[in-house]
Specification:
Helices cover about 85% and strands about 0% of the residues. The protein has helices at about 1-25, 30-40, 45-60, 65-90, 100-120. It is elongated and about 45 Å long.
Length: about 120
């Protein structure tokens, strides 16, 4: 069980850093604005995305959050990563930019798998 907790918290903290902290700190940079525009999205979409990412990571990282809300956050991130990947592939072709969200999705899936394991153990 200790190994499961370590894997869960390690992957969940990585998601928190990649999808919560980093976007919150960099979303208003010129590079971030160019990136969202490059994909064909308006700037306000990028701002809304950052708000939902920060809120979603808080739902994942705070232990007292109810299971249903955590599962909604996991689902939201799955959509985010899949559509980010599709957007990059559609605009940039089969480049590495399209695979980065899929790598983060894999980390998210490990977090979710171990979250489920810990829930079953606790029950």
């Amino acid at each position: 069980m200790k190994k499961d907790k370590i894997i869960y918290w390690s992957t969940t903290i990585l998601i928190f850093l990649f999808e919560g902290v980093m976007p919150a700190l960099t979303s208003q940079t010129e590079l971030a604005k160019q990136g969202i525009s490059h994909l064909g999205y308006p700037l306000y979409f990028g701002n809304a995305l950052v708000v939902f990412k920060v809120l979603g990571t808080l739902l994942l990282i705070i232990p007292a959050i109810p299971k249903k809300l955590k599962e909604l956050a996991y689902a939201g991130f799955i959509f985010d990563f899949v559509f980010a990947s599709i957007s990059h592939f559609a605009v940039d072709g089969l480049g590495y930019e399209g695979f980065v969200p899929l790598v983060v999705l894999a980390i998210l899936m490990v977090s979710y798998t171990y979250y489920q394991k810990l829930q079953k153990t606790a029950a």
